[in-house]
Amino acid sequence: MIVTSSSIKTPPPPHPPNPWAASQNPNNSFLPINRRSLLSALTISTTTTPFANSFLNPMSAQEVAFARGLFQMPPVRLTNRYFLVRAGESEYESIGVINTNPVAKTSVDNGLSEKGKKQAVRSAFDLKEMGACDKNCWIWPSITQRAYQAAEIIASVNGVSRSYIVPEYSFLDARGLGAYEGKNLEAVSEVYASDTLSPTIKPPPIDDGTPNESVSDVLVRVIQLMSILETQYSEDTVIIVSPDSDNLTILQAGIIGLDLRRHRELSFAPGEVRFVDTNSVPTYKQPASAVYKCLKPPNCN
């Protein structure tokens, strides 16, 4: 006898209707979600989602170390390359007169002198030789006339579009010297003598609107500038063009951790260019007492 079997399987009987569900929702209308069901659903989703741990667990120590926060001096790291440039000599400087009142910063007299134009051209070629703009760059000059003129020369020599010149309206103003406004440039030595005693000493005030800024005041401004640059750009090249030396020396002193009372040691000549290389600058070591003692001010050597 030949026995044959059929490959067709009998489908399972359908589940009997749930009379409780039908009675609870006879018209298949929307039922409100109760609190217990919602909490249960959330618990299941967070335990089964593959990314749940990354949201629920705190950041690791390494992640915290590399997270961006408020810019501080000295910085933990710099995300951009920086070149510091002092603008060339101004018309006021050519006649030996101190002019730091921001009201006059865009005047023609605050522009580059003939000597200053040559210094600006030299700084532009120095930047080109250093390869500052080989992969494009941003130029951040003070809106002070001589600094912006220097930025235009730098852009022209290095083939940078004018759209990459970003004028800075306040954080890069020349340091306000108060009552020294209008005096001979040689009088600045008195300000620097005070700087060696304390970074909080201000020049004497004046009532013509010229600010009298201490080293600490300038430090606040350059920190604000660096906070913007480090937030706005990443792995870019930024050329900072300042109308005076103090902005740059205080900025560099803060970056390398040098005592701010010694910022004058980093003085910039008109038209000088300097690359900010934190790895090549030796770390400044404070005295063991952590107190700078000066027995015969202003001669503190």
List its traits:
4 strands, Rossmann fold, single chain, alpha/beta, 301 residues, four-stranded mixed beta sheet, His_Pase_superF_clade-1, 34% helix, His_PPase_superfam
CATH superfamily of the domain at 81-275: Phosphoglycerate mutase-like
**Poorly predicted parts:** 1-7, 50-56, 60-66
Tell the overall outline: globular
Helix content: 25-40%
SSE run:
HHHHEHHEHHHEHE
Identify the strand order in the major beta sheet: 2-3-1-4
- Helix count from the secondary structure assignment: 10
Range of strand content: 5-15%
Ends apart, CA distance between termini: 121 Å
Number of distinct beta strands: 4
Name of the CATH first level of the domain at 81-275: Alpha Beta
So, CATH architecture of the domain at 81-275?
Answer: 3-Layer(aba) Sandwich
CATH topology of the domain at 81-275: Rossmann fold
Biggest sheet features:
4 strands, mixed
The overall pLDDT average reads 82
Rg (CA only): 33 Å
Helix/strand/pairing class, anyone?
A: alpha/beta
What would your notes on this structure say?
This protein has 301 residues and is an alpha/beta fold. It has a domain at 81-275: Rossmann fold. Helix content is 34%, strand content 6%. The protein contains ten helices and four strands; from the N terminus they run ααααβααβαααβαβ. The chain has helices at residues 19-24, 35-48, 52-56, 61-66, 91-94, 114-129, 145-157, 188-195, 215-232, 246-256; strands at 81-86, 138-141, 237-242, 273-275. It has a four-stranded mixed beta sheet, covered by helices on one side. Helix 6 packs across helix 7 and helix 9 (215-232) packs across helix 10. The longest helix is centred in the last third of the chain and has 18 residues, at 215-232. It starts with 18 loop residues before the first helix and ends in a 26-residue tail after the last strand.
